[in-house]
Records
---
Amino acid sequence: MKARLRRIGSWIADRAGLEPIFRFLKEYKVPPELGRTKKGWFWVLGQALVFVFLAQVVTGTGLAMKYIPSPVHAWDSLQFLNNEVMWGGFVRALHYFGASAMVVLVFAHMARIVITGSYKFPRELNWITGVVLLFLVLAMAFTGQLLRWDHHGVATVDVAASILGRFPLVGPWLMEIVLSGQTVGGATLSRFFALHVIVFPLLIVAMIGVHLYLALANGVSEPPKAGRPVDPATYRSWYERHKEEGNTRFFPDVAWREVAFALLVYAVIFGLAFFLGPKGPGAPPDPTFTEQVPRPDWYFLWLYTLIWYKPAALDAVVLVWFPLLVFPALMLLPLLFGTGERAPSRRPWAVVAVGGAFVIWATLTAFGLRPHWIPNFDTDPVPAAMLAGAPPEVHAGAAVFYERGCQYCHVAYDRGGDYGPDLNQSVARLSREEMTVRIMMGIGNMPAYAHILSASEVDNVLAYIYWAAERRARPAEERDAPGASDAAEREAAEPGREGPP
Ligand code: HEC
């Protein structure tokens, strides 16, 4: 049996002209450190990306068989996949966590390459094609999100498109290309579907081909050593000698590690998909519900946090220049710093840059996970000093506002959660009657209070809301009652001190 299989195998290899390829791969040498040291484990991330991409092609093809790319049916077809199709929900989950794994791996791979200086001579083009792949992976994540056709997916693309629309010169034109129209609609969905299942995957396959060819042609980078700078005049000949010395081959000295790691990644994706299940679809899109900030998938959450919280002065920087320049800037990296030391110990700035980027990303993501999208249960009651001089119904209203949890979701004056609209602004938009109706009957995600609050309590709350908004609108120096300034409050909150009397 075994002999027969082997005979079939060598027949195919012979007739298909695979022998030279096998021979090349079998004899392909890599720097000896990769076969020996623990460092080799840091050189497996790129291959794992190829493995996960292949899995995405398989699960994605499965999903495309059932998915209907039309605004009327998309959401239902995902519900159908989740609930009716055998393994449908599981395959959706695999595809979602596979996408997450690709984003994680692509950044980990990049971080390793920056830290070990592997983008330097002669591997500048490896890096530049890698940046193109980064863009494509993010473009897949972005287009995939819209295909879910739920409220957050649609709203996320809406926001991104309006950012594109602000780019100088080409903005409006670019926005129309992306959306295939002026707003997110059926034409956008068709366009994103075509991009997600045909255009971007083909570009990724082509780019992976180029990227891998470059990896073979320029050789796998060796783990750096302090005091061994890259000199373009001597590097290539040194590298060839260095490779020969160890006689370490890709097969099997290094390949087993890559397969082992890829299997581990597969296992993690399977585990997450199995225990956490598919993502959404969430509530269907509702164009009238614009109060809520879109919540993109985790990989873009940091950006939306930034968009939402940026100071107005940084508008153009955050919305236009950063997204416009980040990819070209990344591509310039090897052209500006292409030679010299590679060891992280001699390039502390590289480690700081990677660490700093990670810390900023993690902070923004953590921040984005909290306010706006969930009530804020940590808000403090208004200090009595702030209400000094206000009529009694305002005092009573402030107490109701805090105790009945309005403040978890709404800002009045300067405090409260962001889940619902800022009431300082609502007073200008709504009449007193409209406010009352919304409080009594509820609206959207706003609970009804008709059976919770008495008529006089509602009156008091409104008195407080109007009083707070009027106070808020005054210039800062008149605004604060004595003793209620931010500084005094912060002081009072410090442990070990007495609160205000
Ligand atoms: C669970 C969070 C939550 C709580 C608690 C809550 N609200 Fe709301 N509220 C919302 C949301 C969300 C909206 C916007 C609903 C929409 O427009 O679809 C809203 C809308 C409103 C509006 C209309 C504002 C506008 O600009 O459209 C008023 C007024 C209001 N709430 C007052 C209150 C008061 C007073 C309380 C306490 C008695 C309260 N809310 C408690 C979430 C909350």
---
Amino acid sequence: MITDRINFLRDELNKLGYNYYVLDNPLVSDFEYDKLFAELKELEENHPELVTPDSPTQRVGGISSGFEEVKHKYRLYSLDNTYNYDELRKWYERVEKECGKGIKLVCELKIDGLAIALTYKDGTFVQGATRGNGIVGEEITQNLKTVKAIPLKLFEKADVEVRGEIYMPKTSFEKLNEENLEKGEKPFANPRNAAAGSLRQLDSTITAKRDLSMFTYTAIIENASTMPETHWDSLQYIKKLGFKTNPNIRLVNDINGAIDFCKEWETKRFDLDYATDGVVIKVNSFACQKELGFTSRAPKWATAFKFPPEEISTKLLGIETGVGKTGAVTPVAILEPVLLAGSTVSRASLHNFDEIKRLDVRVGDRVLIKKAAEIIPKVVKVVDTEEHEKLPEYIEPTECPVCHAPLEVREGEVNLYCTNEHCPAMVKARLEYWVSKDAMDIDFVGPSIIDQLYNLNLVKSPVDFYKLTIDDFLKLDLVKDKSANNMYNSIQLSKTRPLARFITALSIRLVGKETAELLVNEFNSLEAIINATTEELSNVDGIGDKIAKSVFEYFHTDANIQMINAFKEVGFIFENRQVEKTTELQGMTFVLTGTLNSMTRDEAGDKIKQRGGKVSSSVSKKTSYVVAGDNPGSKLDKAQNLGVIILNEEEFLKLLNISLR
Ligand SMILES: [Zn+2]
């Protein structure tokens, strides 16, 4: 039965997703997961009446016109904050006075994210809302469905309401900001803002692309097989239901245990990939919680210990400037080394020259530096001193610190740019980008190797990498046969990278990975992208005028075209993705079902269309062929009933005139 298969696939995908996104313990390869997912998607496409809102296929998102307000069934209270251990002890004294001695506590890290409330009926996710003012929030169910750590279906048919914190991992945050900068967009201030911005998208397909996760920390269980009597047990229970809880929680016997926990995490928190700003301490027993009750705004049975801000003052020894791959010149504060949040800091970010002006930072000042959710500390302000006024004001550079070419300001941008296309700093930064994971992904060739290759005049442009011989590598410091071979091979191997990676690697201004993919999908070949007008470029969904102009200018610069030709000479083949259209399958209609081994179903469809054939999603008497791969769906049964010719993969490839590898 189809419904049986659909249910099986959903359960299987739910289980696999749970292990991957909640337990961080993948059970199968992405490929196997995608295969099951594709099968479910096909079955649902053929039987739209069987699609349910909790199906794993419903995580893709869509457009909404706005967010409705919803009244929370249970109010989301705020917590009283404490900043020192004495206050924590006083709080515990009040707890003991009400409930007697020896009250156990649960300590949890306070995640610096966005509080949300999720409602489950009969084990199915039915509604998700922001905290709002605690009484009324905004309904963002569709967006929350794209967060894979949020179960759409629980392992049990329970009625529960849970609260949790949506967060963006620090590493994903930094990556997102890099991409935004590349696109000329404003970076997010911290991971919390990035998470909030991602969740409040009207187009939830954007939310789906962002790496968001959630820790669940409270459950109100209305109807379930187990009705826990303590907070600790309820956390263990919701974990079993399929929710992701933070692994760093601890049940302690008294306030001393809680204070130990706070002290421990004050420094350890910086090793985590998510931002925390304190510890939440809750009375474990629900009976005792009930006895304590609430004030008008907060529960008396819980309190939040806030970590002291990680700020410290130190002397600004100098302001260094660096040149990036786009030629942007950015300032970095050089500091008298100081211990901050468990590590010695001697450099801090100053963002750009406007920021220096705004803060009136002068070399010799005492400055306050802060390490918050961000990984790199930044200069927050100047500490008032008598010396400050006597120090000379910082003067913005007018020339490149490396090649001394004049700097320019570009319209609508805060950065200063080096105007010399051959600036050694910029060229080296581009070479480093060329080999990076996001671009051509070349192993064994790091910054120090690039530095040497550049200084020996062996590599001045990315195309030079491909002209290097093994002997060239042996000229470098400490490079022996084996590593010379490794470097040579991994460079040569990169010639076969997909076109989108090549375009990304070119470091065209405002063109990152995502834009490169948009270009390739639209134009299919490098030739077509080079020949596109600015209008054609800006007509592509997701590419604005600024990017279009930048791409056009890049490919209409002689030096760049010469470089592209040089890539062809060293063996790059920029194959067109689309083959010439032919007519051999004209008048034939194909239906594809199941998984093919040699290509995806989309590719198979493209190949049919290139030969003049048509692809349909449903089988009828008019269908010429049904191509059945592995695990075919119901279309195969239908084809058999109607007497339509069924091709297996081998027969299909033969028909396309493609030989089996
Ligand atoms: Zn320069």
---
Amino acid sequence: MRQELDDALVRDFPNLYADRKSTKVPFCWGFECGDGWEPLIRKLSEEIEAIIVAMPQKERKKFRVKQVKEKFGTLRFYMGVAHDGISAVIDRAELQSAVTCEVCGKPGTNRSLSVLCDEHHAERRKKR
Ligand SMILES: [Zn+2]
């Protein structure tokens, strides 16, 4: 993901992305997916950040992102601990990523392990 999009997410959701610069977690590599999924990740972040902010201060630090990446064509969003409300939000975003072009965010389908719209699928085939 482009640096400016990455920076904006980390700035806007300071609890969820508190470990962005921690070298102890894979999240130090940033958001390992295309720009097309940024709106999806932003929406998910808004929902989860709101859940975290509603918790007592000392609980909040348990709920930090460990890794965000693309795997087999879908978004994978890893956090340290399980929480029903948060898991539901993540599941929904992961399902949505399976039909969203990772390059531009338009509707897409999974084409040999990456989700692309028609335009970006054609473009990628030309390059090969
Ligand atoms: Zn596209």
